[in-house]
Design goal:
The chain is an alpha/beta fold and 430 residues long. Bound molecules: iron/sulfur cluster. The site of iron/sulfur cluster has 10 residues, from helix 6.
């Protein structure tokens, strides 16, 4: 039996696409083996959100070549889409596929020999069709990612994604429903709606919207939890919150990317909302969803960010009190407008500012966890972790561990929340 091995960098969309490509190879009779093993085919699904993503992608290509000199190496994803010739020039690469045309990847790979060098990347900005890739089963997951849209047309001035993923393309509602029903039949109960710009779902289709999709999934048998992956605030408003507030299975966890808490910085980032609008969205979510966890992304050191602007961000982040936050330092991406700005920030200042935001958000995280001590919450258990503990997540995304010998994989159990240590909530089965 032929072997295929995969390596994925980057976001949930990339993880979804790799899982779908694995399924295509498995259906074609391949054995999927770990990337560290010798294989006939290696597929590297790349990320280009930072320059680190590009260099790590190249490292994994070289690792594959080292694992088997005869193997066919195919590279896909955002780095492949934005720099195909650069990727093809890496020793050992045989095929470069961008962010479309993956559904035919098996045939494309089987048409190759170890010496070919094929650039199969097309201009993604011309794409209008959502590429349907389908998953019926996840190898190592309890919770199922569902890709509902691709692309982004926001063009935040620091972001390379619109050039790598093309314009917004939404998946047909009936295809999403069919995939969820198939996965529910195979025992999955929690579904994470993911995409590049999830909140833009349906903008290119007349007949649906993100709110309508959530309410449709809410009616499906076998669905216990619906989760939204990261959502951009530009298109969120009180009407959207009203429209989703009656979806009983929608988890009260909203990851809404703030990036900056200063209106002047947001303007230079070309992000079309104000801190007042962001606060109103957060207030609306907290009013509509009991116990809602609001988490976010914050970028420090955007070009031109003065001490005064940063102080505004500090104060705004404190005011919101996020349940958690991913903090990034601005990373220059060639090809983006922000990269051309003269007023780049000293790396030491970026570092110090991200440390400061991490301090603030760590405190609000602890406050959020401490509020839950003594409560009993339902946890979906996923995996056994260190020395006898089993781990899972509450609906509002608190990671919980309980000490037990029971095999709890995929089970929902009530847990009395007892203690917080290192961002983990410890509890006892109720
Ligand atoms: S919304 Fe902005 S940050 Fe998000 S993918 Fe689109 S351009 Fe990038």
């Amino acid at each position: 039996m032929k072997k295929a091995a995969f390596y994925t960098l980057g976001c949930k969309v990339n993880q979804y696409e790799t899982e779908a490509m694995e399924e295509l190879f498995r259906n074609a009779g391949y054995e999927i083996v770990p990337f560290s093993e010798a294989s006939d085919v290696y597929v590297i699904n790349t990320c280009s959100v930072t320059s680190m993503g590009d260099s790590k992608s190249r490292r994994m290509i070289r690792r594959a070549r080292k694992n088997n000199h005869e193997a066919v190496i195919a590279v896909t994803g955002c780095y492949a889409q934005t720099a195909p010739e650069e990727v093809l020039a890496v020793e050992g690469v045989n095929l470069v596929i961008g962010n479309q045309g993956r559904k035919d990847i098996v045939a494309k790979v089987e048409a190759l020999n170890g010496y070919d060098k094929i650039n199969d990347v097309y201009d993604i900005m011309q794409t209008r069709e959502f590429e349907e890739l389908n998953i019926t089963h996840y190898e190592h997951r309890t919770r199922a990612f569902i890709k509902i849209q691709d692309g982004c047309s926001q063009f935040c001035s620091y972001c390379i994604i619109p050039y790598a993923r093309g314009p917004v393309r939404s998946r047909r509602e009936q295809d999403i429903i069919a995939e969820i029903q198939e996965l529910a039949k195979n025992g999955y109960t929690e579904f994470i709606l993911t995409g590049i710009h999830v909140a833009a779902y349906g903008h290119d289709l007349e007949c649906t919207s993100l709110a309508q999709l959530i309410n449709s999934i809410d009616k499906l048998e076998g669905v216990k939890r619906i989760r939204l992956s990261s959502i951009e605030p530009m298109t969120l408003n009180r009407k959207f919150i009203d429209d989703i507030s009656s979806a009983e299975k929608l988890c009260p966890h909203f990851h809404v990317a703030l990036q900056s808490g200063c209106d002047a910085t947001l303007k230079r980032m070309n992000r079309h909302y104000t801190t007042a609008q962001f606060k109103d969205i957060v207030d609306g979510l907290r009013e509509a969803f009991h116990d809602a966890a609001i988490t976010t992304d914050i970028m420090t050191g955007f070009p031109g960010e003065t001490d005064e602007e940063f102080t505004e961000t500090e104060n705004f982040v404190k005011e919101i009190g996020f349940a958690d936050a991913h903090v990034f330092q601005y990373s220059k991406r060639n090809g983006t407008p922000a990269a051309k700005r003269k007023e780049q920030i000293d790396p030491k200042v970026k570092e110090a500012r991200s440390k400061r935001i991490i301090e603030i958000t760590q405190k609000s995280r602890n406050d959020f966890l401490n509020i839950h001590l003594g409560q009993t919450s339902e946890v979906l258990f996923e995996q056994r972790v260190n020395d006898g503990y089993f781990e899972g997540k509450t609906a509002n995304y608190i990671t919980v561990q309980v000490k037990t010998n029971e095999e709890l994989h995929g089970q929902y159990r009530n847990v009395k929340l007892m203690d917080v240590k290192d961002n983990i909530m410890y509890g006892e089965l109720a």
